[in-house]
Recover the amino acids of this structure.
């Protein structure tokens, strides 16, 4: 198996963060994992991480990185621990280095806290948040009863200081993190190797102190991104009540309670796929805006081109295009496309579109040309950077119903411009090719 190339991103405070890019696709997924299992190169040799990475990479372009203080990234000072805000910047540095403008953040355990803070700080760069076994506060408090007390944390730090890297330590850890595999000695040996290559003892102490001091409860209600919270019902590291607490405080968050206790990278593929499908549907709706479309077409263009020849027709067509562009600019329209001798523009106001159409007709008459113009208002969807959808198709068909030097509009446009001073004549009901139902059209008479 080929291991992805490890690269380095540099944070604003000069920390080097090891990262990898796996897979491709329109969706970027940034994974923020536990520091206890973080070594960009070695992770691909451990099935727990490798299998999870491959599942996520099948769903988009996966950005993996070792958090500061772990794996192949720079260490942190045990005397001067970085703030959570500084650690959150690891995400931004990796996204910038990988050319990712916006991503789905995927957080495991205390890595989820980094995701929560990033999503609240940079909503414009956060497409969604997915967590597995998320932590939002590690110290006990009356409103955070899942946390460890100060005494329990002190005991944990002593244990790390005295037993880090030993098989006994890993055995005890596995009974909490991977209880179903805690008696598999081959697995324990693999787990121990991963831990030793993820953290030195000093790093493990620093990571635990940072974990202990994490508290992002205050940012949860400010998260705007769609959020999926997956949590194990039998989680022995982060109890299920913490998952409920998080999901209840992030507006619109979806909680999926999963069976079992083992901390896998991917909790449930079906839940993730359903969430991402809903996200895609929702975002497709964001690309739909109410817009007025205008289409033009030169009347008798083929006959005129034959009469004057190719060179003269080309020159005349350029003059036609310039005249129409001038009108578009005057009425604050946007040129979307030109196809042959036709123009396609959009406007944020139907009255201006109609007046632009009238102006266009007058502008090309001096060139000895006549055009037909169609105008329609409806929901327009952005497709590959251009306006598209049923409203655009209707606009093109409305233009096809116009005669020489006529502006024809749909009933929607007529209704919207009431009081504008524009006058219309009924052009009857028509069937528009490829468009459902019959449409009443109107001819602009002034």
């Amino acid at each position: 198996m080929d291991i992805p190339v490890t690269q380095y991103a540099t944070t604003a405070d000069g920390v080097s963060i090891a990262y990898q890019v796996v897979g491709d696709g329109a969706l970027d997924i940034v994974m923020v994992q536990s520091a206890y299992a973080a070594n960009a190169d070695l992770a691909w040799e451990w099935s727990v991480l490798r299998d999870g990475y491959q599942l996520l990479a099948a769903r988009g372009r996966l950005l993996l990185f070792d958090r500061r203080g772990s794996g192949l990234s720079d260490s942190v000072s045990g005397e001067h621990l970085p703030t959570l805000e500084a650690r959150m910047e690891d995400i931004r540095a990796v996204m910038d280095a990988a050319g990712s403008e916006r991503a789905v953040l995927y957080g495991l355990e205390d890595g989820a806290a980094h995701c929560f803070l990033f999503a609240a700080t940079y909503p414009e760069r956060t497409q969604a948040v997915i967590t597995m076994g998320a932590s939002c506060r590690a110290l006990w408090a009356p409103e955070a009863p899942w946390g460890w007390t100060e005494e329990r944390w002190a005991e944990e730090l002593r244990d790390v200081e005295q037993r880090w890297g030993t098989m006994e330590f890993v055995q005890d850890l596995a009974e909490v993190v991977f209880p179903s595999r805690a008696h598999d000695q081959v697995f324990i040996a693999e787990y121990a190797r991963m831990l030793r290559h993820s953290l030195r003892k000093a790093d493990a102490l620093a990571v635990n102190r940072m974990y202990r001091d994490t508290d992002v409860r205050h940012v949860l209600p400010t998260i705007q991104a769609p959020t999926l919270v997956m949590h194990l019902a039998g989680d022995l590291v982060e109890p299920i009540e913490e998952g409920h607490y998080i999901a209840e405080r992030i507006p619109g968050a979806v909680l999926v309670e999963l069976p079992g206790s083992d901390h896998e990278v991917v909790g449930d593929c079906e839940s993730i796929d359903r969430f991402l499908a809903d996200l895609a549907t929702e975002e497709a709706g964001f690309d739909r805006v109410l817009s007025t479309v205008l289409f033009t077409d030169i009347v008798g263009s083929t006959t005129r081109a034959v009469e004057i020849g190719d060179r003269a027709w080309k020159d005349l067509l350029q003059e036609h295009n310039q005249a129409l562009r001038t009108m578009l600019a005057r009425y604050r329209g946007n040129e979307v496309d030109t196809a042959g001798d036709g123009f396609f523009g959009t406007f944020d106001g139907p009255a201006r579109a109609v007046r632009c159409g009238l102006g266009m007709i007058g502008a090309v008459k001096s060139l000895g040309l006549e055009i037909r113009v169609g105008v329609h208002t409806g929901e327009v969807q952005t497709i590959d950077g251009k306006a598209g959808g049923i409203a655009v198709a209707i606009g093109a068909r409305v233009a096809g119903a116009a005669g020489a030097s006529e502006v024809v509009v749909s009933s929607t446009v007529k209704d919207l411009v009431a009081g504008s001073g524009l006058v219309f004549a009924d052009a009857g009901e028509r069937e528009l090719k490829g468009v459902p139902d019959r449409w009443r059209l109107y001819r602009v008479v002034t």
In short: The two ends are 72 Å apart (CA to CA).
